[in-house]
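Researcher: Structure for this, please.
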Amino acid sequence: MTKKAERTTAYIIETVAPIFNKFGYVGTSMSDLTEATGLTKGAIYGNFENKEALALSAFEHNRNILLEAIDNKLEIGLEALDKLFSLLNFYKQYDVFTLPMGGCPLLNVGVDAQGNNKLLAAAVKETIKEIEGKIALVLENGANKEEIKLPVPPLQFAKQMFTMIQGAVAMSTMTQDRKYLVNTITYLEYLVKQELKK
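Model: Predicted structure, token format:
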């Protein structure tokens, strides 16, 4: 692939990622994509096999932005609790962080893809497992270094924590009230301190 072709492909993905995320796979029309990119249908499909391949690339683009941000937050601090509080602090501003993406890619694409796009649904599921794994690793390392006490296995705690976070994201998205997000994360901070602090 030439440098120009690579730039065109990257431009298309970056431009259409928020559109797919906001309006969904079915809700995004070809005219939405040509209008946003300023390219013809032929030019877009010259870079992607079909709409499904483009939607998947768009999700992966947003997913990579999210995973990079989570990795950065989990690297802050020396001890497990610092890392967890850094992640929770990130989620207090998650609605602001995901605004340029058109909202939370896990929530939007995950719900939209159920029943109409197996590839996208699988990609979301895989991403959720990856994030839970990252949290579980922090917990496991913290327990091994005896920085925290774990009442349940690391992955179980990580799954419960992430379920509460994503539930708060869903509620604040549906009600357009960020208090659901802020209040739940504040409660999670309390819970983490109560459950894990030695």
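Researcher: Any notable elements?
Model: The chain has a mean pLDDT of 95. The radius of gyration is 19 Å.
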